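Hello, quick one for you while I still have it in my head. Could you read through the record and tell me how the tokens relate to the sequence? No rush at all, and the record is pasted right below.
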Amino acid sequence: MTIRFLLLSMIALSAHPGLSQERFDALALLKDVETLSSDDYEGRDAGTAGGAKAREYLKTRFASLSLMACGESIEQSFPLDDDREGVNLIGRIEGSDSPGKAIVISAHYDHVGIRGGEIFNGADDNASGAAALVAIASYFTRHPARHTLIIAAFDAEEKGLRGARAFLDDPCLPISSISLNINLDMISRSETHELYAVGIRQYPYLEEFVQGIDSDRDFTLLLGHDEPGTGSDDWTMASDHGPFHTQGIPFIYFGVEDHAGYHQPGDDYEYITQDFYVSVVDGVIELIIRMDADLDAIEEHRTR
């Protein structure tokens, strides 16, 4: 990490004492985003050397947390077009009380690669979500939830949600055991410090859980972008939560509005909103704690 960004990070965190240090290493979170969105990873296009390098980086970070594999291997391969292969990374944190029910926490780690000779680094889309998975796993490997948590770093989201579809086509645990999906895609860049929680229109009983997670945190939580028939304004199928919804699995998708860097070469680390991002990750951990504590109620609503 450059000295300038390290100093900015420390200043941002000092404005919110104790915000994340009790739960995860905020500087490590920022470093993970900076690394994954550097030119060395060539835009992380699925099935390329840059994508493979990002996958190896995440595997190393997961291994440092002693994150268990979900199934025989943490890797789940699936075919792409033109004889290339996508690879999901699927980890598991066993529940302490009710391991037979699971929450899938997902984010894609791929981006769009190199176009016209320019590297599209995808800091917000979606190095931010992938790095957040590491921070979330770091907390829950030390403080296991009551229910099993699946940490899913999906590949090939940019090619049609291919990684999420592959996971659900060949899951490492019974589909019936998946109670909920929390999906993170573009959570680090917002000049207005606004974050959307999508999915409440489809699953209104989840609203009570998301309300207030922005209290005393440096973001404003908004609901919306989930009204059918609104075209590009409807994000119900916009990311990896979509295939879960198709299977009838409730979801909450967190993301920011499109910005000037979206699918452009300017989606670089230097433009992420660091204090906002750290606060969002802390808020997501709070949400997981809440939902894990009352997952039976969510299941009751789902089966009505």
Q: What stands out?
A: Confidence is low (pLDDT under 50) at residues 1-20. The chain is about 35% helix and 20% strand. Residues 219 and 280 are 7 Å apart (CA to CA). The radius of gyration is 18 Å.
